[in-house]
Amino acid sequence: EKRRLQGLRSTVAETRDGTPIELMANIEVATDLDLVRNNGAAGVGLYRSEFLFLGRDDLPDEEEQFQAYKQVLEGMQGLPVTIRTVDLGRDKMPRWADDTDSPNPALSLTGVRLCLAEPMLFRTQLRALLRAGRYGPLRLMIPMLSCLAEVEQTLFHLEQARLSLADDGIPYAEDILIGGMIEVPGAALTVSHFLKRLDFVSIGTNDLIQYTLAVDRGDDSVSHLYDALHPAVLQLIAGVIRAADKANKPVSICGEMAGDPKLTRLLLALGLRRFSMHLAQLLNVKQVVLTTHLQQTTSLATKLLKAEDAGRVRELLAELNT
Ligand code: PEP
Ligand code: MG
Question: In Å, what is the CA distance from 95 to each residue of 30, 89, 92?
């Protein structure tokens, strides 16, 4: 079985009826990029840059960040690389901030909010990213967006970073794409407005589930309620995909759901064509893609979205997966 999967590494990812499906990899700082390419990933769909900031007392400076991002872009040899700007807070608290007395870190200064509250930290990263963008097709992705003003403020900081690099006579990339993560229900419901300012969106289902169902993703006492198949989660995902299709902008999923082969057909049925996942899952998901008739799955989409609870979704899913 393992050997058979290995044989799929260079097989083009497309459904039985010939629709191409993009399968990308989620990576962290120490990921082996040769392995990513050799497993046939179409690129990096999520690079979690915050790992450069964790487990240390100081902040990585612009040069250190530039080198790290450049290394990934070069290592991917021309394939697209999506680098998420620092997503700290919540479950990823850096040492210099772990004394915060927020009553609820998950609803506090986190993701893009923290960046906007610490503009020097943000500018430094944006400058490093703009410089690194000269070494390959870079997509920059903003985490934890909840309102449009955060997109506008980010674009403002990006413009300031460009101007300061130009001032310093430091070369940078002009053509990087800017996308946002949709992982807050309020952003999912209003994503069409975000899409006017962004080049792409990616759905972070790990957080989207947590915030939609009010279930902490790391709390065992409520883990039985953390359910990707809750109809509310599926409706939000379907709504984001629909809005992105309508806006003619790419949409992907980079949460754990994207790497679960039991959910591949479900996501295809909801219209998803771009997945980003842990590398270890890529060939398993590809195998499901290759055996899927898109037309058969899409006819189930309406039923899936009308399901009254996760139990009914599971029944439909069993049908879909046979
Ligand atoms: C997510 O929330 O689905 C996601 C991909 O981001 P993270 O797991 O890093 O919060
Ligand atoms: Mg997230």
Answer: 20, 11, 10
Taking the mean position of all CA atoms in its chain, how far away is CA 8? 24
Distances (CA, A) of 225 to 182, 212, 217, 254, 313: 21, 11, 10, 21, 15
Length of the chain: 322
Q: Tell me how far the alpha carbon of residue 48 lies from the centroid of ligand 1, in angstroms.
A: 9
How remote is the CA of residue 241 from the centroid of ligand 2, in Å? 18
Distances (CA, A) of 122 to 60, 115, 182, 227, 311: 12, 5, 20, 33, 43
Region of 18 on the Ramachandran plot (φ > 0 left; ψ -120 to 50 alpha; else beta)? left
In a 13 Å sphere around the CA of 231, the CA atoms on its Cβ side amount to: 15
275-287 pLDDT, tens per residue?
Answer: 999 999 999 999 9
pTM over 0.95: yes
Residue 72: Cβ-neighbour burial (10 angstroms; 0-12, 13-18, 19+)? buried
CA-wise closest residue to 137 among 183, 194, 79: 79
Kind plus residue range of the DSSP H or E element containing 174? none
DSSP 3-state assignment of 166? helix
Give ion ligand 2 contacts, CB < 5 A: 183, 204, 207
ipTM over 0.90? The verdict is yes
Q: Which atom number of ligand 1 is nearest to the Cα of residue 46?
A: 5
